[in-house]
Design brief:
Layout lengths: L2 H34 L7 H22 L7 H5 L3 H32 L17 H19 L2
Helix pairs in contact: 1-2, 2-5, 4-5
C-alpha cells in the first residue's frame, strides 16, 4: 500500500474516531439539557446525525481500502486465477464508479441546499450531504489505489 494512501487512511480513521466522540458529547449534552436543565437543545439531533453519517461513510471507504467490504467470494474462489483477476478488476471499476457517483451526487445535493439552514443549527441544509461527498471520494480513491496494485 502506498505511503500517501496509508496517510489518508490514517486520517480517515481519526475522522471516524473524532466523529464518534462528537456523537457521545452531543448526545450527552442532549441528555443533560433535557433532564437537568429542562431545556432540550434543538441542534443536537441534526449534528449527531451529521456525525453519524460522517463515521459511516468514512468507515465504508476504509472497508473498500482494506478489501473488507461486502462481497461474494464464493463465486470468485471457484473461478480460474485469470477469471478472478478480471472479476476483481470489475469490482474495482464498480467501486470507483459508485464512489464517484456518491461524491458527485452529494456535491450536487449540497450545492442545491446551501441557502437553507438545517433545522436548529446555523449549518446549511446541504451540510447533510457532505459525508456523501467525502466518503464517495475516499471510496473512489481507495479503489483506484487498489487497482494500481493489481
Amino acid at each position: 500500500m502506498s505511503k500517501a494512501g496509508d496517510l489518508v487512511a490514517r486520517l480517515t480513521l481519526w475522522l471516524c474516531v473524532v466523529s464518534l466522540l462528537g456523537i457521545v458529547l452531543v448526545q450527552s449534552w442532549q441528555v443533560f439539557g433535557r433532564y437537568l436543565l429542562n431545556d432540550s437543545p434543538s441542534w443536537t439531533e441534526p449534528l449527531a446525525l451529521l456525525l453519524m453519517n460522517t463515521t459511516m461513510m468514512c468507515a465504508a471507504a476504509l472497508g473498500v481500502r482494506s478489501h473488507a467490504h461486502f462481497r461474494f467470494s464464493l463465486l470468485s474462489e471457484r473461478l480460474s486465477p485469470l477469471a478472478q483477476r478480471v472479476l476483481n478488476g470489475l469490482a474495482l471499476v464498480i467501486a470507483v464508479a459508485l464512489g464517484l457517483l456518491l461524491a458527485i451526487g452529494g456535491a450536487i445535493l449540497f450545492w442545491s441546499d446551501r441557502d437553507v439552514l438545517l433545522a436548529g443549527t446555523l449549518l446549511p441544509e446541504g451540510a447533510r450531504y457532505l459525508p456523501l461527498v467525502l466518503g464517495g471520494a475516499l471510496m473512489a480513491g481507495f479503489a483506484l489505489e487498489r487497482g494500481l496494485r493489481l
